[in-house]
Amino acid sequence: MKDARRLFAALADGNRLRILFLLAKREMYVSEIARRLSLSQPAVSHHLAVLKNTSLVHSQRHGKRTLYSINSRMLNDLLDYIAGKFSGGDREN
Fold first, then answer.
1. 65: which of 8, 32, 41, 44 lies 20 to 30 Å off by Cα?
2. Cα(first)–Cα(last) distance of the chain, in Å?
3. Tens digits of residue pLDDT in 5-52
4. DSSP labels, 14-80
């Protein structure tokens, strides 16, 4: 898995995990996520940028707004990576 440490660092933040759980249910705009999690829009935008940089979420522009969705393929790759680590596969640090 490419840059696993950066990926796991992104997942270590509770707000980012909460955002991923919301996006697992449906696509959302920043304003919707902010309202649901009682976070500021700039804070949500920051967390989404981190998640996007690790390819965990996709974004799609709709005029002035951006719609975010979860990257299921990346999450499946992550689960495969974790399964390999626990089954005695790759021993990379």
1. 8
2. 12
3. 888 899 999 999 999 999 999 999 999 999 999 999 999 999 999 999
4. HHHHHHHHHHHH--EEHHHHHHHHT--HHHHHHHHHHHHHTTSEEEEEETTEEEEEE-HHHHHHHHH
Q: Which two tokens stand for residue 60?
A: 């799609």
The model carries a pTM of 0.81
Q: Residue 4: which H helix or E strand, with range?
A: helix 4-11
Residue showing tokens 């990346």? 74
Contact at 8 Å (CB) between 37 and 44?
yes
